[in-house]
Design a protein that fits this description.
Layout lengths: L7 H18 L7 E2 L1 H8 L3 H13 L3 E3 L5 E3 L4 H25 L2 H22 L6 H15 L6 H22 L4 H15 L3 H21 L4
Antiparallel strand pairs: 1-3, 2-3
Helix pairs in contact: 1-3, 4-7, 4-9, 5-6, 5-8, 7-9, 8-9
């Protein structure tokens, strides 16, 4: 298959989006070689389009170029996870403070709704329903993004989104569901947000993120 029928821009955007999603969810694993012929068959686009998409993923630090040897998925490391966690905490904590000051009743409703969906998946995971894992990951991301959505800064949201997505790759492959601890932290974050307690929200967020990192490192995947 090739990208015939798509404009160059549309084909490149589509390939970037699909490859990026496969990296973030772990279908393309850390260190995996990205051979152009295999990618061409998998994603239905030409080699030139693939090079454009992979170059874009290099700037996002999700892919690395191996000189004349081609491309591979960016590796994992405990050091990078810790760095991403600190960056996420810095950006998300700052955005959370602004959101708590600026959020209106509609924002409160979105926060409560996002937490409700997340808590439903947490209940299912507690009950041993493995099918809830993928929607739990999606709703976990949605909850955290909703919490800061009223911060009033597109630049801050974009910067957070870049770091958060790279952090998600670790979450999808190494962090997993932490059971009652995560459930309590999510509930406490929701409650602190609704009562506009920025100090408590930042403290809970810090414990939540750093606790997730330690959980991942203890698992031995990294």
């Amino acid at each position: 298959m090739t990208d015939a029928g798509f404009s160059g821009e549309v084909a490149s955007e589509r390939a970037w989006r699909l490859i990026r999603a496969d990296i973030l969810r772990g279908a393309l694993t850390p260190g995996q070689k990205l051979r152009l012929e295999g990618l061409r068959e998998s994603y239905g686009v030409g080699v030139g389009t693939l090079r454009e998409s992979l170059s874009r993923l290099i700037t996002e630090r999700l892919v690395v170029a191996e000189g004349q040897r081609g491309f591979e998925v960016a590796p994992f490391s405990a050091k990078e996870l810790r760095e991403l966690a600190q960056l996420r905490l810095l950006l998300e904590g700052h955005a959370l403070e602004h959101a708590l000051r600026a959020g209106d009743v509609e924002w409160e409703a979105r926060v409560v709704a996002a937490h409700h969906k997340l808590s439903q998946m947490e209940d299912r995971l507690h009950a041993g329903d493995g099918k809830a894992l993928e929607p739990w990951r999606r709703f976990d991301s949605e909850f955290h993004r909703t919490l800061i959505s009223a911060c009033g800064s597109r630049a801050l949201m974009a910067a957070h989104g870049t770091v958060f997505d790279r952090y998600l790759r670790y979450q999808n492959l190494a962090l997993g569901f932490r059971g009652d601890i995560a459930v309590r932290e999510h509930r406490a974050l929701r409650d602190a947000a609704i009562r506009r307690d920025a100090a408590a929200a930042r403290e809970i967020l810090s414990a939540h993120i750093l606790g997730g990192v330690e959980h991942a490192l203890a698992g031995g995947t990294l």
